[in-house]
Amino acid sequence: MRGIPGTVLSLLCLLSAVSGAPIEAEEKSFKVQRRRISRRSAPNGAAALGKTYRKYGWEVPEAISKKVPTTQTLAADPSREEGTMKATPEEGDVAFLSPVTIGGQTLMLNFDTGSSDLWVFNTNLPSEQTQGHSVYDPKKSSTFRLMEGASFKISYGDKSAAAGTVGTDTVDIGGAKVESQAVELASTITDSFLRDVDSDGLVGLAFGSINTVKPQRQKTFFENVMATLDKPVLTANLRHHTVGSYEFGRIDSSQFRGDITYTPIDDSKGFWQIESKSFAVGDGPTQVNPNASPTIMDTGTSLILADDAVVRSYWRQVQGAEMDEEGVTFPCDAPLPDFHVALGPTYMATVPGELMNYQRLGQNTCFGGLQSNNGQSLQIYGAVLFKSQFAVFDGANKTVGFAPHK
């Protein structure tokens, strides 16, 4: 394991929020496996890059916008089997979808440690905007309660948004249940949200301080269920082209090698934010990124978006790689070195070279899994990294931990 210089991040308090009521159960840990679905759209690297730019309020370069396909409305997918709790990633690992039951109705949602809203496609939306989705119907739930006067609006930097009303209902994720969990019901939704046709909504697992509900922010599902768990943790065990899982309350030591290395987070902006100040390419020496931007650990993002210095250093070692406003591309037959990157002051993760190939664009042109943050003030580490690491999000101790997969 590569060593790196040590620093200590400050820990800041989470803002208070209205909480749902966790349901007591004998079992104090709960696993949810991703479910097998048939993907209905091709992976698109430019779309994944543009989606991350929008999510964090960054201006999307015109060259990337032109590469994003228009929305298609598709018929519902009959291969979605209810109750199986099994899954594999979508083609291209664009999103990791997991079954979530709300008021007795099961939807396939993204688990997103980079946001804090639980919002769903529902019967308040026009039918033409819900084709291809499982839809939550609050009228079919005996436990749904409308939050009078409450609303939400998730706005992206390009003015795309989802907005609507808010209610509470019983939410069940892998057997972990919260009564009166805030559920956001979109009634208006713009095109960029519709492009993610395989997802029925999103479970935000960052901190409630950035939840968008007004007049009072709401706690996330993880914050609400945490006190009932054996351990106050959420683990992400995401895999490349195979089944993976999330688990609340337990750290499964059979899924990783060695010990978990923890690093403190800075949650002052509501994210699982750490330092990532050094890296290495292949067998090369450890390099320091002197002006490293803070790093958000985001399971809801597909790619790794890093500072230009890091991105250029890596792709400089790949023959034929090109970096422009449309993103980094390279010849598909070019060997890709491993990418070693600091996650906190004492742990260096290794992302195998094969994971750095995100998408084939043409006969011999591929889109890189490591892309530039375009000079923005944040680095975003998404699924390309998580597919190489077992990750622990510790809500009580405000740390994240990592170890390589077995």
Characterization of the model:
With 406 residues, the chain is mostly beta strands. Helices cover 9% and strands 33% of the residues. The chain is built from 6 helices and 27 strands. The chain has helices spanning 45-55, 62-65, 191-194, 221-225, 308-315, 383-386, and strands at residues 21-22, 30-33, 97-102, 105-112, 118-120, 145-155, 161-173, 176-189, 201-204, 233-237, 245-248, 261-264, 273-274, 278-281, 287-288, 295-297, 304-306, 322-324, 327-331, 339-342, 348-351, 357-360, 365-368, 370-372, 379-381, 389-394, 399-404. The strands form 5 sheets. Strands 3-4-9-5-8-7 form a 6-stranded mixed beta barrel. Strands 2-11-10-26-27-12 form a 6-stranded antiparallel sheet, with no helix packed on it. It has a 5-stranded mixed sheet with strand order 13-16-25-17-24. Strand 20 (339-342) and strand 21 (348-351) form a beta hairpin. The longest helix is centred in the N-terminal third of the chain and has 11 residues, at 45-55. Mean pLDDT is 85; it is low at 5-18 and 70-94.
